[in-house]
Amino acid sequence: MTKKQDYQKLEKKLIGEKKSCWELWDEKIKKEAFDFAEKYKIFLDKAKTERESVLEGVKMAKEKGFKDIGAVKSLKAGDKVFAINKNKALMMAVIGKKSMKEGFRMLMSHIDSPHLDLKISPLYEEESLAFFKTHYYGGIKKYQWPTITLALHGVVCLDDGKEINFVIGEKDTDPIFMITDLLPHLDRGVLTPKREVLGEDLNLLLGSIPVNDKKIKEKVKLAVLEYLFNNYGIKQGDFASAEIQAVPSNKARDLGFDRSMVSAYGHDDRICSFVAIEAFLNTKVSNQTQICAWVDREEIGSDGQTGAISLFFEKFISNLLELGGEKSNMSEIINIFDKSKAISTDVTVAVDPDYKEVHDLRNAHRMGYGIAMEKYTGSGGKYSTSEASAEYVAELRGIMKRNKNIVCQFSAGLGKVDQGGGGTIAKFMANRGIDIVDMGIPLFNMHAPLEIASKADLYSAYLFYKEFYLG
Ligand code: MN
Ligand code: MN
Predict the structure, then answer these.
(1) Model pTM?
(2) Transmembrane stretches, by residue range (predicted)?
């Protein structure tokens, strides 16, 4: 007869323990996780747009000796290069000891986050108030954006070739901007339906002091333009050649008495972008070339010059080949893709106790339980997604075993099968033949002005990404 004690052993062997990082880690690792989060918060506060993220990424890479690929004549093992795509995406590589033909290892993440873009003709006056009209970018819940403090980040390109970069609303002494909302007294949800916030309601309040001239029709609007011209040289028509975003002005902050989590704007996906670049810059040169790629436009489908679909990726691989003294043509590149391994480092959803009904709780990620793998994303019936092969997932599980502090949770498909879904850049790399799977950090409030992540998951991802690069 088998004793009860043996079943406990058997359970441990066959099922294992489901414990959070906080339960599994010793004090030393916990301290490392907290210290790592401090660096992350500093990065987040500096990188609130794609363009700002690229600037920060290049700065971090240059500090580690990376050179612009346009400035190098040839490449050999251990060389470090980067390439900027239209100021909004970034590719970095450390050349491996073996030929590029052996394939590369890549972490790819996106540096765009949901926000509000100013429209082409944004400025108007109504009821003696000036506003900017916006067009939301990415999947937002519109009601979350009124009544929060917003900052403007952007670039205005003048027709004389001058480029003006500005940020207003981040310093404590700066003014901020806000989208107004209706008071509850006039928005009763009991007898009449609540007034829904629509895209055209997302208008930023800018000012209320008119210019002093009775003959001018829109006096407050002119006063705003006068301010913009005096301070930045911007005229009304210049908004047509501008990219200005409204983003939450909040700084990244510790959340909770135990400070175990971070609340911030733009965790999706700058959290994985940051962890990926940190792992990339701190790993050792290995046999295969290592790539860290930051792309744009993921939140709106990855189309365009700077998204994951763009051929800039092929151009970068081709440049690496040629500078390494190898032939570069489409069939070579396709063969390389076939031998390459990648991780789409993107965020996922953590089970929120208030909304458990949207999850299959047996296949869901928890906050603090480590880096989360999504074998596939997409929606009902596995539409619009790639799926990592069993062989590739097994390989990654093998890599995890090397460091006992790597804690990982496995799931797929974002919530209940018929509930909803989502996509990432993974499928665009899988379409090219690259082995890829999504592995990132579970969040609360994804796509809200402020999102929440666990410092444990952040650090667990870092430990794993570093091991991944070594192959
Ligand atoms: Mn994302
Ligand atoms: Mn997203």
Answers:
(1) 0.96
(2) none
Q: Which two tokens stand for residue 12?
A: 């441990």
Tell me which ligand sits closest to the C-alpha of residue 424. 1
Q: Which residues of 305-327 are buried (b: 16+ CB within 10 A; e: fewer)?
A: ebbbbbebbebbbbbbbebbeee
Residues within 5 Å of ion ligand 1, judged at the Cβ atom: 268-269, 346
Give distance in angstroms: CA of 116 to centre of ligand 2. Answer: 14
Question: Nearest ligand to the C-alpha of residue 269?
Answer: 1
3-state secondary structure (DSSP) of residue 194: coil
Question: How far is ligand 1, taken at its centre, from the CA of residue 298, in Å?
Answer: 7
Q: Which ligand is located closest to the Cα atom of residue 270?
A: 1
Q: 1 alpha carbon to ligand 1 midpoint, in Å?
A: 52
Predicted local distance difference test score (pLDDT) of residue 380: 87
Compute the distance from residue 78 Cα to the ligand 1 centre, in Å: 30
CA of 159 to the centre of ligand 1 (A): 34
Please answer whether residues 177 and 73 qualify as being in contact, where contact means their C-beta atoms are separated by less than 8 angstroms.
Answer: no
Radius of gyration of the chain (CA): 24
Q: Residue 159 burial by CB count (10 A; 0-12/13-18/19+): exposed, middle or buried?
A: exposed
Ligand number with the minimum distance to the CA of 441: 1
Residue 158: per-residue pLDDT: 94
Q: Measured in angstroms, how far is the CA atom of residue 49 from the centroid of ligand 2?
A: 14
Q: Is the pLDDT of residue 3 over 70?
A: no
pLDDT at site 191: 67
Q: What is the mean pLDDT of residues 87-112?
A: 97
Please give the C-alpha separations between residue 224 and each of 119, 220, 298, in angstroms, as whole numbers.
16, 6, 34
Give all domains of the chain, ordered by start, each with its CATH number.
7-113+265-470 (3.40.630.10), 115-248 (2.30.250.10)
Q: How far is the CA of 6 from the centre of ligand 2 (A)?
A: 46
C-alpha distance from residue 234 to each of 70, 164, 165, 217, 229 (Å): 33, 9, 11, 20, 5
Report pLDDT digits (tens) over 184-235.
Answer: 888 877 666 778 899 999 999 999 999 999 999 999 999 999 999 999 999 9
- Helix 27-46 / helix 267-281 crossing angle, nearest 10 deg: 120
Tell me how far apart the alpha carbons of residues 454 and 450 are, in angstroms, rounded to a whole number.
Answer: 14
Structure tokens at 4: 């009860």
pLDDT score for 229: 96
Mean pLDDT of 442-470: 98
Ligand 2 center–CA 267 separation, angstroms: 9
- pLDDT at res. 370: 98
